[in-house]
Amino acid sequence: MVSGLDNPFFVKIPPSFHVTEHGRFMLNKLNNSKDDHLKAVESVIEDAWQALKETQHEDGHWAFKLEADATIPAEYILLNHFIGEVEEDIEAKLANYIRSIQCDDGGWPLFHAGDMDVSCSVKAYYALKIVGDDINAPHMKKTRAAILAHGGAAKSNVFTRISLCLFGEIPWRAVPVMPVEIMLLPTWSPFHLSKVSYWSRTVIVPLLVLMALKPKAVNPNNVSVRELFVTPPEEHRRYITNPTGGVWGEVFLAIDKVLHVIEPFFPKAFHKRAIDAATQWFTERLNGEDGLGAIFPAMTNAVMAYHALGYPKGHPDFAVAKKAIHKLLYLEEDQGFCRPCTSPVWDTGLAAQALMVAGEPHNGPCIRKAMDWLVDRQILDAKGDWASDRPSLRPGGWAFQYWNDYYPDVDDTAVVIMALDRSGRHHYQPAITRATEWTIGMQNQNGGWGAFDADGTSYYLNHIPFADHGALLDPPTADVSARCVSMLAQLGHKETHPAFSLGLEYLRKTQEDDGSWFGRWGINYIYGTWSVLSAFNAAGEDMDTPHIRKAVDWLKSRQRNDGGWGEDGATYWLERKEEVKESTPSQTAWAVLGLMAAGEVRSNTVRHGIDYLLASPRSGARWDENLFTAVGFPRVFYLRYHGYAKYFPLWALSRYRNLLRGNAKTVPYGM
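and the corresponding structure tokens:
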């Protein structure tokens, strides 16, 4: 009989790893034998499984909290004071939340335990000052000192500087020119709305109206933040810089300087026509109480644009736009935050699949209600902005949020198709067929898939001064493409299918030199590598091929001493690619799922990852996880899906149990 680390069913606990009393009990049990180990795994699965079921809404869907950084609640407060509608109780709760996530250095990061971000910190400071925080209070003094040490508010990004312009804090020359006449450009022009991402489009169009009208906030308390500038804002001369440092950036910088000179001389009739076109564009896409683009920044810009246009508060468009923002509030007794959007379709598709892996009956009421809820939200009639590049393609996808008919996304659609197929293909075949048709039709020419649009590869636009956030486009990415390949494979397609073959080749070409794949929508290479390995497994790829083994070796090399995996939001900067603060249950689950997809279910690496999940603190369905493990825009906007720590660890544990009990190496299904 083997013992110790020679035995893959023995767990050694690193001295630095904190284990709860329950976790230590479980580890003692599973150190005895394989059977006891699987019993321990089964016990945790059963507990988390039932707890996850209890979070299902009565109509069948799941929706968990989605949290961003301090920018969103701060912008909610700034919006209220821009239009002159103060909500003292709500703002007080948002302010409590903003204070609660302030870092020791006085600033606010873009993700938990990240570096201070000047732009986020400026907005947070301004919001707190607006609600009445004394600038000489210790937390405000620390923030001010931190911002000034980083060059002051003048070093904020374009969106923060626009907010400062709207409050009269800095001159409009501090932001790049984005003439509203953009609305009238032909589709063949170098810059056209169809060339940028959906989120950029919905944010930019109402912003064009604001930048054209240049209104000033009501600001009922007349709050200013001039103390955040190293140089008086009207004297600062170098607000606008080359965002990428490349030659194209210098060209666009020169164009911007010319536009600053000539913009005031644009014909007034042409100007008004463009404002009307922009207003009509975002009004057509208001999306009722789910809001423009169903994302907070676009919604707030729409409300401010209506205010600048002189719409009365009771106007139906103004009222519904404001109500959509209210629905994003998540308020508790003492504090609360504003969500950037909601994620019910994503949460439902993933939670249902985790439960099915755990053993929830596919035809039982829990899964059937979830699938019926999803089918009811399939977009079958509305052609969204995606149709400008695919005019003959029938709609058939799903959006990320409750309703967002103009903007279904490929990633959600692939996940929902796999969930429907898993629960009973015959029952949902019409929905699956229609959605598959749409997904295939959204494939890019290079074989990959973007999230919301096809062929969003006008990379030169990333060099315009306005694009200093680096998130203007929606190009194909490995993680979304992998989901589509997984979906096609699960439906039975083979490499003889053109879309399937092109997708596989795209994934092979986009592997990083170290063996990993980039993760666009989850942090980061662990997420991307799990996604792609799942796709290769589903496609029947030989798991002994060099590119697969290279990915496996990379994942194994990233395992931490506690048995888990972690990856920091800073890894989106190439010089910080290997940065990690601590292991997280979500990222550990992805790594384990990826390794099992590659046939590593019986490896010590997987076993130790499973042990990490068993020993990690957990309450009901949710493993404790404070770090952000998802991203909206790399290096700019990060997300904390509160559902990830519920369904992904359960998924990993359940798959591990299933494969061991079935004495199998092959992972069924696409995910």
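(Above: one complete record from the training split.) The domain at 66-338 is CATH 1.50.10.20 (Glycosyltransferase).
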